[in-house]
Amino acid sequence: MINEVEKLYEMLKKVQEPKGYSFNKDKKRVFELLEALLINKRRYGYMCCPCRLASGDRELDKDIICPCIYRAPDVEAYGSCYCNLYVSTAWNEEKIPHVYVPERRPPEKIPY
Prior knowledge:
5 helices; 2 strands
C-alpha cells in the first residue's frame, strides 16, 4: 500500500499546490490520511474524508469527497482543512496558530 500512497501523494501534490494548497509538513500524518483515503476508495468506491463518517452513498457523501467542499473555507479561516491534510504555507511555517478546525458539515448530513 505504501507505493500506492506515495503515488497518490505525488499526484495530489502536483494538482493541489498550483491551487495554493500544501500538504501538512508532518509527512507521517499525511501518509496516514492518504492511506485512509485509499481504504475509503476501496470500501465505498470514492475517496471520502477519513476524518468524517461516510454513508456509503456517493450522492449523500459528495460534500466530503476529498478535497471536500469545506476545505477552501477552512484553509482560508484556519490555515488548515478539518483533518489537517491540506494547509496553507503560513500554517506550515507556523506563522499562524494551529487551532482546532470546527466541523462545517451540517448535522443532518452526518450518518448515525
